[in-house]
Specification:
The chain is an alpha/beta fold. Helix content is 55%, strand content 12%. The chain is globular, with a radius of gyration of 22 Å. The protein binds NADPH dihydro-nicotinamide-adenine-dinucleotide phosphate and magnesium ion (MG) (2 copies). Pathway: Amino-acid biosynthesis; L-isoleucine biosynthesis; L-isoleucine from 2-oxobutanoate: step 2/4; Amino-acid biosynthesis; L-valine biosynthesis; L-valine from pyruvate: step 2/4. It comes from Halorientalis brevis. Its EC number is 1.1.1.86.
Length: 328
């Protein structure tokens, strides 16, 4: 099992002499930059001249430069532009990484699949909150933490781990707990999870459930509530207390029906094939090629998703009903 680190294992003063460049000010970028800044760490934000986020960052009291200038000014450079953009941004800033500097990521794709190949004399590591950026920021402001991952890919200075833990503490992750992992494990589990379970698996199950009911003549509104809306209630119970809390909260009929029928909808071989495609690099190659071609298939899939009946029905129902202020 992987080690887990908390606040008492980390010391922000290990990066008090460092300047951290945050490249990008999107979901993760704004959260890292603001949390580091408020933790007393010296931060500069790297954004291209045309970026519409420049003002937002400056309004928060952050210093904004171009990515190249930010990397030149910094000892630690955190890549928080979209993964597909990182190789080209890296090519711009590569020469600004001096021996002993640290290159950081919040996801391992580009290192693991060889899209970014750092020089031998820089430290390379990952500090990855396991949550969208707005929650990383919101939790920090509330004095709470966001669970995170730490991975060391290259440690030339012997200081990578203590600096990584210091960074993780400064963005609030060690308040919740930071699990140590590797670039390979993070990248492969992340891609598998989002494809097979979280994003791909769940949407496909909801869609096909909805279609099965509608095709059998049931009303789309009933199908929507049953297959999509109630999913959140079930997932909240699982999140709070695991499967048993969920099973204990639903009726015995739901529990028996679920336990005996659930397996029927899952294609275990399909899951194994997805994992294989992640492990052997086939998915990565496909996605890199797709981006080089300006994303023709991506656009098609996205259009089909947007035009699916469940989107129209859901939009209408979400306007008609109020489901409470806690909906995010
Ligand atoms: P975003 O899509 O939110 O990043 C957008 C930022 O990148 C903007 O500031 C944008 O600035 C900048 N940017 C885009 N293109 C360029 C470019 N060509 N040159 C310079 N800057 C550019 O990214 P995320 O925060 O979602 O992801 C960042 C990293 O964090 C990724 O590695 C991701 O895998 C990882 N991660 C993301 C999580 C999430 O929930 N979002 C969770 C955990 C990890 P501009 O205004 O110039 O376009
Ligand atoms: Mg430098
Ligand atoms: Mg250093």
């Amino acid at each position: 099992t992987n080690p887990i680190y908390y606040d008492e294992d980390a010391d922000v003063s290990n990066i008090e002499d460092e300047t951290v460049a945050i490249l990008g000010y999107g979901s993760q970028g704004h959260a890292h930059a603001l949390n580091l800044h408020e933790s007393g760490v010296d931060v500069v934000v790297g954004l291209r001249e045309s970026s519409s986020s420049r003002e937002a960052a400056q309004d928060e009291g952050l210093e904004v430069m171009t990515p190249v200038d930010a990397a030149a000014a910094a000892d630690m450079v955190m890549m928080l532009v979209p993964d597909t953009v990182q190789p080209s941004v890296y090519a711009q800033i590569e020469d600004e990484l001096d021996a002993g500097d640290t290159l950081m990521f919040a996801h391992g794709f580009n290192i693991h699949y060889g899209q970014i190949r750092p020089a031998d004399d820089v430290d390379v590591m990952m500090v990855a909150p396991k949550s969208p950026g707005h929650l990383v920021r919101r939790n920090y402001e509330k004095g709470e933490g966001t669970p995170g991952l730490l991975a060391i890919y290259q440690d030339t200075t012997g200081e990578a781990k203590e600096e990584g833990l210091a960074y993780a503490k400064a963005i609030g992750c060690t308040r919740a707990g930071v699990i140590e992992t590797t670039f390979r494990e993070e990248t492969e589990t992340d891609l598998f999870g989002e494809q097979a379970v979280l994003c791909g698996g769940v949407t496909e199950m909801v869609k096909v459930g909805f279609e099965t009911l509608v095709d059998a003549g049931y009303s789309p509104e009933m199908a929507y509530f049953e297959c999509l809306n109630e999913l959140k209630l079930i997932v909240d119970l699982m999140y709070e207390g695991g499967h048993m809390e969920m099973w204990n909260s639903v009726s015995d009929t739901a529990e028996y029906g679920g336990l005996t029928r659930g397996e029927e909808v899952i294609n275990r071989e399909g899951m194994e094939e997805i994992l294989e495609g992640v492990q052997n690099g086939e998915f990565a190659r496909e996605w890199i090629t797709e981006n080089q071609a300006n994303r023709p298939a991506y656009k098609q899939y996205r259009d089909a998703e947007q035009n699916h009946q469940i989107e129209e029905v859901g939009g209408r129902l979400r306007d008609l009903f109020a489901w409470g202020d806690d909906a995010e």
